[in-house]
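Sequence only, no structure available. Ideas?
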Amino acid sequence: MEFLESLIVGELAKGVVAMMKEFVMKEWMKVFLGFISILAGICCVMNVRNLDYYFGEWVPYCIGIVLMAGGITFFWTRSKFYKG
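Reply:
I predicted one. Tokens follow.
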């Protein structure tokens, strides 16, 4: 019940925002996650035969493409060619 009261009043959201402001991700961690995202996307696309038993045939492709696009976008936005 206390959780719902704090959610309605807005104290919970303010606490989460304050906590996220304190947690600052270092640049090397962001680069590492970008590489991991690209590699995980490649693995999903390459292992479609193994993963389509659990999911559909198209689901691993979609997950892999989204992961690769996220990693590539991270590096693209930090490149000298990005004008944004």
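The CA atoms of residues 52 and 59 lie 8 Å apart.
Hope that gets you unstuck.
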